[in-house]
Amino acid sequence: MTRILAVTNQKGGVGKTTTSVNLAAGLAQSGMRVLLVDLDPQGNATMGSGVDKRTLKASTYQVLLGLATAESARHRSESGGYDLIPANRDLAGAEVELVELEHRESRLKAALQSLVSQYDFILLDCPPALNMLTVNGLVAADAVMIPMQCEYYALEGLSDLINTIKRVRQHLNPKLEIEGLLRTMYDPRNTLAQQVSAQLQEHFGDKLYATVIPRNVRLAEAPSFGAPAVSLDRECKGSQAYMALVGEVLNRKGIAAPA
Ligand SMILES: Nc1ncnc2c1ncn2[C@@H]1O[C@H](COP(=O)(O)OP(=O)(O)OP(=O)(O)O)[C@@H](O)[C@H]1O
Ligand SMILES: [Mg+2]
Fold first, then answer.
1. What is the rounded CA–CA span in Å between residue 178 and residue 145?
2. pLDDT of the chain along its 259 residues, tens only?
3. How far is CA 157 from CA 193, 194, 195, in A?
4. What angle do CA 94, 96, 100 make, to 5 degrees?
5. CA–CA separation, 257 vs 259, rounded Å?
6. For 130, which DSSP code?
């Protein structure tokens, strides 16, 4: 069974893309067949996977509007070891153009149907907004992974996201689950981070991943090499944390992580 995970948080810069590319590469290193879909006009997941967003013939934009099939838009991330449906700023136009179309919330789900069975995991890197692109991600997904920074406003934004997930569940995708909340860019010496982390633990219990992603400069440098950090430097603290996350994600799917 394929597991489709939407990596979502409407807050910007919380580590969605870093999580998407490293999880994709880490799962691939563990022998999983992985597809990453870039749902963000910024195209950061595309560049971070080593695919040039400026030279795309077909991308998520064409796929959503029915101008290209998912198969024909598919690229290979050689550095990451996974397949990628890339995106660039064309996708910003999709928001407006989708409004005119029927079943506009389920375009991605329909487009992916033909290749779902080729993968163990499909990851959807969502943009920092609760817009039609994110809704397409939530409708196509089995579950949501929420990266977040442990800071004061994090919890406030979380309730908007949880409400959106509830609405999508009611109207469009009843089986949508919360896969987990992931603490990113974590600094254990920061007292506020500790407090927010404790609150998350209290509210979300085992929905909170035990793995915590530390602030690590290797994770931030990796995109400039067009490769996920877990492919470039498996030993750095950030990569080790993402590989531990891979273990948790595999466990939740009932697969024993390789040693
Ligand atoms: N654990 C980390 N340690 C250090 N830097 C990080 C870490 N995670 C992410 N970063 C850096 O923080 C910035 C934001 O991360 P990222 O692009 O993954 O967030 P995002 O949620 O996808 O952002 P956006 O909302 O714009 O799509 C990037 O420059 C990234 O390299
Ligand atoms: Mg991003």
1. 7
2. 999 999 999 999 999 999 999 999 999 999 999 999 999 999 999 999 999 999 999 999 999 999 999 999 999 999 999 999 999 999 999 988 998 898 999 999 999 999 999 999 999 999 999 999 999 999 999 999 999 999 988 888 899 999 999 999 999 999 999 999 999 999 999 999 999 999 999 999 999 999 999 999 999 999 999 999 999 999 999 999 999 999 999 998 887 766 5
3. 16, 18, 17
4. 100
5. 6
6. S
Element (H, E) at 35: strand 34-38
> In a 3-state reduction of DSSP, which class is residue 126?
coil
CA-proximal residue: ligand 1, atom 31 (nearest): 220
Distance 252 CA to ligand 2 centre (A): 24
Pocket of ligand 1 (CB under 6 A): 12-18, 40, 42, 44, 128, 184-185, 213, 215-216, 219-220, 223, 238
| 106's tokens | 């389920």
CA 120 – ligand 2 centroid, Å: 23
> Tokens for 120?
């163990």
Tell me which of 7, 10, 11, 18 to substitute to probe ligand 1's pocket, judged by most ligand atoms within 8 Å of the beta carbon.
Answer: 18
| Angle (nearest 5°) at CA 179 between 191 and 40 | 85
End-to-end CA distance of the chain: 22
